[in-house]
Amino acid sequence: MAAGKYDIGYFESDYAENADIKKIEIWYPKELETSGAKYPVVVFVNGTGVAASRYQPVFEHLASWGFIAIGNEDPSTWEGKKADATLSWLLTANEDETSIFYHRVDTDNIGITGHSQGGVGVFSAINETEHKELYRCAVSLSPTQEDMAEALKMPYDSSKTTIPVMILAGAPNDVVSLEGLNDMFKKISADVVIARRSNTDHGQMLYSGDGYVTAWFMWQLQGDEAAEAAFMGENAEILHNSNWQDVMIASSNR
After folding, report:
1. How confident is the model over 38-49, as pLDDT tens digits?
2. How far apart are CA 250 and CA 254, in angstroms?
3. What's the Cα-to-Cα distance from 82 to each of 24, 59, 74, 145, 196, rounded to whole Å?
4. Which of 8, 14, 20, 193 has the fewest CB atoms found within 10 Å of its own CB?
5. What angle do CA 208, 210, 215 make, to 5 degrees?
6. Hey, where are the domains in the chain?
7. In angstroms, how far apart are the furthest CA atoms of the chain?
8. How many C-beta atoms lie closer than 10 Å to residue 106's C-beta?
């Protein structure tokens, strides 16, 4: 939950190709401007009407731990297409000699996360979009339950998931029930971690999973063994954290 060691830089760019995206917003380790190193990426998928500019501290937190954290102003995100277009912008910048992101993007280590409708958009992005093969891992925060999402005309199919995914929600009530989480747990054949934060409502989940979200990406995208210990083994930290309940962990080898 604490800030990482990196000072934070910020970049934004207008995005004329799509009126919903409006602009690209990127928080990144400040040293990127001079280091010559490459940095893993986390793409954010907004909740309904909750643009990236409204939750800047979440982006800054990941940037302080060494990630390029990128988002936009899209108010309706369930299809994942505009989040994927945002990634496409960054991939183009990675090949642009005039960009500060020129050859600074670790294209082998790209993750994605989103909350609420954005949690649905995470599954859509990793399973249905142009760059679906580039996403290495995902975190879905309080995704709208699949049957409810279908009724709301924003369907998704979590069973298509082939990359490691963590799904976090609030308890006792959220837009996805414990039964809904159990159903996804059974359907997803990839590595999966599911947990509910005790005494936490839907809106709070955008922020309340932050420590584990950071650890998940540090493990999956940076190879951090200490972060891995939060999720793996009989003594996995999340299994013994009293703030969390209904924890389920499964390997793709199960």
Report:
1. 999 999 999 998
2. 7
3. 11, 18, 7, 21, 28
4. 14
5. 140
6. 8-250
7. 50
8. 17
Q: Are 58 and 94 in contact (CB under 8 A)?
A: no
Q: Mapping DSSP to helix (H, G, I), strand (E, B) and coil, where does residue 227 land?
A: helix
Q: What are the tens digits of pLDDT across the range 170-229?
A: 999 999 999 999 999 999 999 999 999 999 999 899 888 879 999 999 999 999 999 999
Q: What whole-number distance in Å separates Cα of residue 195 and Cα of residue 214?
A: 15
* Strand duo 68-72 + 39-45: pairing: parallel
**Other Cβ atoms within 10 Å of 159 Cβ, number:** 14
Residue 8: pLDDT band with limits 50, 70, 90: very high
Structure tokens at 25: 């917003």
Task: Find out whether 160 and 191 touch, Cβ atoms under 8 Å.
Answer: no
Structure tokens at 37: 């190193």
Cα gap 208→16, rounded to integer Å: 33
In single-letter form, the type of residue at position 36 comes to: G
Element (H, E) at 206: helix 205-208
Neighbours of 232 (CB within 10 A): 17
In contact, 217 and 165? CB cutoff 8 Å? no
Q: Copy the structure tokens of residue 51.
A: 């643009």
pLDDT score recorded for residue 206:
85
Name residues whose C-beta falls within 8 Å of residue 211's C-beta, 6 or more positions apart in sequence: 1
Domain 8-250 is in which class? alpha beta
In three-state secondary structure terms, 200 is coil
171: tokens are: 């308890």
CA distances from 95 to 103, 132, 162, 238 (A): 6, 20, 28, 39
